[in-house]
From TrEMBL:
Annotated signal sequence range: 1-21
Superkingdom of origin: Eukaryota
Protein name: Serine carboxypeptidase-like
Coiled coil (residue ranges): none
Length: 406
């Protein structure tokens, strides 16, 4: 049977359409490429940023910053950092009296989610009045699917989703949605740091943590265990790192000196000051391909979103269990300086989950060290990974210096 003439033209049309699609994808990815940031040292990796529309009708889009691995990016796995504040770039510094070079060893996509956080936005302002975990997870999944269309060569890469603090909600819920929706995404694992997994356990562990670090008195601890609030912990101790130096902004520092460091002075962490100042520079926003839509300036915490606070009490610890059963790797790591979502709560919850799932301990609880200088970095066992003071303090110092260098 002779082929019909129309089938020939149909094949040509399909080929042309495919070529146009590939060209469009290439042009979009090239348009989102970043040449350099103001103040950024010369780097050897490719970096991109821009927006992915998660709801065309409502004009809602999530902002992303994407960095390829410095070495052999064609073979590296993909990491999705949810609710990323900023991403440290390759820099040189001298934290331990020796110059260390830190460079990226995997492909990282950082997104600001939900819309209304950072540079992410919704042109329809009514979206901000009813934001919740379910909508956030759905938007994040749409983002991933569309991002893979824009960067198709990464579609089959192993994907690891990461985050910290409230990402203890975002990350497991997104992973669960990927598994349940049977999306064609090669999800291999998740990693969450100092995560919110179960409200009562996490927040009720704060008093014991603060007391164990000598930051409150015995009498105050006794009151706290009875549910009575106290403001005994000094304002000059950072909640997210109780042993890190607290930094006053220049204006507050002068005021504090004049007032002999009175407790009523408001304390700002320097890294946050530097980040806010940097990301509100017009030249930085232009380099980022970012826009301020519906807000006057970039802020670390959104003041336009009315998030459903009842979501705080939705436990995700059992979502981790379901993910483990489905073959997804789970890493929970906690620094020993965070008093907001402390190590003690994470440890209790993960240990309980391990017993419930009847997991066998494959690696006994033990110290582990940085290979370069044998510095004690922490302790680890099974699915739990605890950062102890030496490494956590080093990481915080590196983070601080990176932001100041920018």
């Amino acid at each position: 049977m002779q082929p019909q003439p129309w089938t020939f033209f149909l094949k040509i049309f399909a080929t042309i359409t495919l070529i146009q699609t590939l060209l469009n994808q290439h042009s979009i990815s090239e348009a989102s490429k970043i040449t350099s940031f103001p103040g950024q040292p010369k780097v050897k990796f490719q970096q991109y940023s821009g927006y992915i529309a998660v709801d065309e009708r409502q004009k809602r889009a999530l902002f992303y910053y994407f960095v390829e691995a410095e070495t052999d990016p064609s073979s590296k796995p993909l990491g999705l950092a949810v609710h990323l504040l900023e991403l440290e770039l390759s820099v040189n510094m001298d934290p331990l009296n020796q110059v260390e070079t830190f460079s990226l060893r995997m492909i990282i996509v950082g997104i600001k989610s939900p819309a209304g956080v950072g540079f992410s936005y919704s042109a329809n302002q009514s979206f901000y009045t009813e934001v919740n975990d379910e909508k956030t997870a759905q938007d994040n999944l749409v983002f991933l699917k569309k991002w893979f269309i824009q960067f198709p060569k990464y579609k089959n890469r192993e994907l690891f989703i990461t985050g910290e603090n409230y990402a203890g909600q975002y990350v497991p819920q997104l992973a669960q949605l990927i598994v349940q929706s049977k999306a064609h995404i090669n999800l291999k694992g998740i990693a969450i740091g100092n995560p919110l997994l179960e409200f009562d356990t996490d927040f009720n562990s704060r008093a014991e943590f603060i007391w164990s670090h000598g930051l409150i008195s015995d009498s105050t601890y006794e009151l706290a265990t009875k549910g009575e609030a106290s403001k005994e912990m000094s304002h000059y101790i950072g909640e997210y790192d109780v042993i890190l130096d607290v930094c006053l902004s220049s204006v507050l520092a002068r005021s504090a000196v004049l007032n002999k460091l009175e407790d009523r002075a408001k304390i700002d962490v320097c890294v946050e000051d530097e980040t806010v100042k940097y990301l509100n520079r017009k030249d930085v926003q232009k380099a980022f391909h970012a826009e301020l839509i519906g807000v006057r300036q970039w802020t670390g915490c959104s003041d336009v979103i009315e998030y459903d606070t009842r979501n705080l009490e939705i436990p995700t610890i059992h979502v981790l269990g379901a993910l483990v059963k489905s073959g997804i790797r789970v890493l929970v790591y906690s620094g020993d300086q965070d008093s907001v979502l402390p190590l003690t709560g994470s440890r209790t919850l993960v240990t309980g989950l391990a017993k419930e799932l009847k997991l066998n301990e494959t690696v006994p609880y033990r110290a582990w060290f940085l290979k370069e200088n044998r510095l004690l970095a922490g302790h680890r066992c099974m699915v739990t990974f605890y950062l102890m003071p030496p490494l956590k303090e080093l990481l915080m110092k590196l983070h601080f210096h990176i932001q100041r260098d920018l």
